[in-house]
Amino acid sequence: MNASPPEGLAPPLAVLLELTHRCPLRCPYCSNPLELERARGELATGQWTRVLDEAAAMGVLQVHFSGGEPTARTDLEALVAHAAGRGLYTNLITSAVLLDRARIAALAAAGLDHVQISFQDSEAAGADRIGGYPGGHAKKLAAAREVKAAGLALTLNAVMHRQNLHHLPEMIELALDLGAGRLEVAHVQYYGWGLANRAALIPTRTQLEAATATVEAARVRHKGRLVIDYVVPDYYARRPKACMGGWARQFLNISPSGKVLPCHAAESIPGLSFENVAQRPLAAIWAQSEAFQRFRGTGWMPEPCRSCARAEIDWGGCRCQAFALAGDAALTDPACALSPHHGAVLALAEAESEAGREAFVYRQIGARIPA
Ligand code: SF4
Ligand code: SF4
């Protein structure tokens, strides 16, 4: 491990604050860890405002208020106002089921710049089943319309998988209907809850190819009206994505209790320890903490990454995925076709996607996770 940070280390572009892990929904692919943090451990308002001060002083540009469900915090408006007052671009990542007109107006008045609402499906029956929250879809539709009426920028986040991909064209229509400027078509990523539910969620290769064609056609058709981002599932790829833009290069994540993480799934890697913003300044953690230093840059890389021309393009892929699929976070991401584990991963994706499991392990404290 390097003892000191690289010279000229840039600050993160963005910080994501998981204000709480409380959430009315129970999505089986939630990015929160399997060990959800309890409400009693959450940072207090004054601790979060200090974090915002420190982030702004470091040169961070954007803050994402996330969760769990961030609107479960009654101090959200105060935190948004504080961030806006420090010149940070503010984004709310929400399920929207707790948002009504008055709350949206208060957030807009506090200086909120942007709202991202997740949708579980394009129609209520599927969406409410996937989210584990009856009536949720209707609430989301109403909230999205209020967000637009309040003049806030709106992105729809459509999390796609084997059980809703047949509705991708309708999801695109929904984004247009709601007046969203951006749609994120995000295939489930298989860490944490997503990994526990992989057999119920992973698409077939045929589904993936159809989805990619649908996105490409929609991008052309709706150019100038709707921007469509597309996040593919790595398992069928030949090269991995640059996860988080590279470990500890552009982004940090803070858990409800103040743990500072290089990515939301980093706690799935055993042996890493994470410092807490209640005990050490954010800038020092970013520059020096063991977890950030461990996989920053290229010095940690094994072959085939070490001598690969893409080493500073994809940064060896995802460390959490390397651990989940190959048992060692310090290996090449098995999503890469150059990894010796790639063939096994591909076979596993094909076998699970064809087997047709439908039942979910819903996200909740005390859920029984299959081995
Ligand atoms: S993914 Fe679903 S369960 Fe997880 S925080 Fe978002 S809305 Fe809640
Ligand atoms: S060998 Fe490593 S650096 Fe090269 S493409 Fe694969 S994951 Fe990326």
Question: Can you describe this structure?
Answer:
This protein has 371 residues and is α/β, with parallel strands linked by helices. The protein is built from 14 helices and nine strands. Helix 1 packs parallel to helix 2 (76-85) and helix 2 (76-85) runs parallel beside helix 3 (101-110). The radius of gyration is 20 Å and the shape is globular. It binds iron/sulfur cluster (2 copies).
Outline:
With 371 residues, this protein is an alpha/beta fold. Helices cover 35% and strands 13% of the residues.
Bin the helical content.
25-40%
* Spatial separation of the terminal alpha carbons: 32 Å
Rg over C-alpha atoms, rounded to the nearest angstrom: 20 Å
Mean pLDDT: 95
Spans where pLDDT lies below 50 across 5 or more residues: none
List the helices and strands and how they pair.
Blueprint: E1 14-18, H1 45-58, E2 62-66, H2 76-85, E3 89-94, H3 101-110, E4 114-119, H4 124-131, H5 136-149, E5 153-160, H6 168-177, E6 182-187, H7 192-196, H8 198-201, H9 205-221, E7 227-231, E8 251-254, E9 260-261, H10 282-288, H11 290-294, H12 311-314, H13 319-326, H14 342-355
Parallel strand pairs: 1-2, 1-8, 2-3, 3-4, 4-5, 5-6, 6-7
Antiparallel strand pairs: 8-9
Helix pairs in contact: 1-2, 2-3
The chain binds iron/sulfur cluster (SF4) (2 copies).
Which descriptors would you attach to this protein?
single chain, 371 residues, alpha/beta, 9-stranded mixed beta sheet, 14 helices, 35% helix, binds iron/sulfur cluster
